[in-house]
Amino acid sequence: MNFTFRPLDPLKDAELLHGWVTHPKARFWMMQDAKPEDVERTYMAIAADEHHHAFLGLHHGEPVFLMERYDPAHRELVGLYEPEPGDVGMHFLVAPTDTPVHGFTRAVITAIMAHLFEDPGTNRVVVEPDVRNTAVHALNEAVGFVPEREIQKPEKRALLSFCTREQFEKAVRRA
């Protein structure tokens, strides 16, 4: 599948995102009760943050997923692990659909990882999903992530996992 990425526009995209982040399948995004203005405010803050960036993933020109890239030395994981040069944090959310396509979410995370590793400065991708989110743990493993340990974040118990460029390339070759 062919995906493209574009920077998220908090003002233009907030309504679309609101439908995604408040959907029952997005419970681990922790915005279930958000109002449209809450979503806009959240993504305006990200847009203004030099260490955190949000992108929409497009398939045939249509937005189908959200990807956030952040610097874990400055956001999300400060004090929870020892960051290494070239570490990049990532979150992603696939848009809800009434017509799921088998393998779509795996194609999305594969495209996200390839996109992140296109930057020669990215040595390792770091994720910290909720420990209860077994579906995303399986997806992460499929693209090469290796869990390190559970950590306690203010909002959740998380599974800290890492994926190097080499681990990703090996996982993609296996698939």
From TrEMBL:
Residue ranges of every copy of the Acyltransferase MbtK/IucB-like conserved domain listed in the record: 6-53
Organism field: Streptomyces thermoalcalitolerans
SUPFAM superfamilies noted in UniProt: Acyl-CoA N-acyltransferases (Nat) (SSF55729)
Pathway: Siderophore biosynthesis; mycobactin biosynthesis
Identification of the protein by name: Lysine N-acyltransferase MbtK
SMART domains: AlcB (SM01006)
PANTHER family: LYSINE N-ACYLTRANSFERASE C17G9.06C-RELATED
Function: Acyltransferase required for the direct transfer of medium- to long-chain fatty acyl moieties from a carrier protein (MbtL) on to the epsilon-amino group of lysine residue in the mycobactin core.
Superkingdom of the organism of origin: Bacteria
A Pfam family annotated for this UniProt entry: Acetyltransf_8
InterPro entries assigned: Acyl_CoA_acyltransferase (IPR016181), Acyltransferase_MbtK/IucB-like (IPR019432)
